[in-house]
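Good day; I would like, with your permission, to put a structural problem before you. A protein sequence and the structure tokens that stand for its backbone fold form the material at issue. The record follows directly beneath this note:
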Amino acid sequence: MIAARTPVQRPRDARLLVIDDRRTIAYAARADLADFLEAGDLVIANDAATLPASLHGVHSSTGAAIEVRLAGRSSLAHEDLHFSAVVFGSGNWRIRTEDRPSPPPLVPGDRLALASLVATVEATLGHPRLVALQFEGAADAVWEGVARHGRPIQYAYLDRALALWDVWTPFAALPVAFEPPSAGFALDWQFLGTLRRRHIDFATITLAAGISSTGDAVLDARLPLDEAYRISAATAAAIRRAKARGGRIVAVGTTVVRALEHSLGQAGEGVADQRIGARTRLRVVDAVLSGTHEPNESHYQLLRAFQRDDVLARADIALEAAKYRTHEFGDSVLIFA
């Protein structure tokens, strides 16, 4: 596979690889996604809008340049200004994360000056780059500062700097994701109209999608970090109706799988802290639409809950042979359990 370098969400030539419940692998155009769904199915997407979660500034006690990438929160509440964050030394997205220098040693009480914002390190979280921090000031002022000074988190394989609209899905709502729930890039309003005409339901959940890479192998092994979510009563009711009529629950993205399996499809708020993989017994979700992922990525491990390793290995060969594009602006896979 090759990296998708240009941030175009819905290119006309986007492709889809389908693994059905009989372990058959098929190539398709992503525009034909609805053809693989059936009346009575329920498609569920993550409606989280993406924050400009990369903030540059200085480590106040040393004056060293830093970049703070917000990575998690324990809730979706507007007033919650406590975050986990990955901190780098000087540099920007054009430098591979693997090559980014470490920040100066961080200890509780350190203050980080991030343009008009100030954050205090509350604790280190088992790694020199991963910290818990709290922003100072009123919630409205902090969120205004993030909007004004932040940039979308991005990586060196892209060919230009991301604008915020590059990382918002068409149905983005509450801005709580730290990186985009990018499987949703495959959808548009025309697709949703097709679902309606074919009597396929659509619903959303909200989950604060975390970061996909830290540049450090030890820290990457801890991904995904805990992710706060909210499932509405309407979505929970849609899940019950679909299950009652024998329809399939199709999750758009690994974030949706994680939230639905953690909540068992029930309404409410929570924090998805589980790891989903080959030994996971899926209780809610029957299929996942996802980007294409390399076997060493945390997202790929979740796909192992849907199909055996030998089937995924055959799919990898098929993706490589057809030169599918990977990463968030790449092609897609649809995998049924």
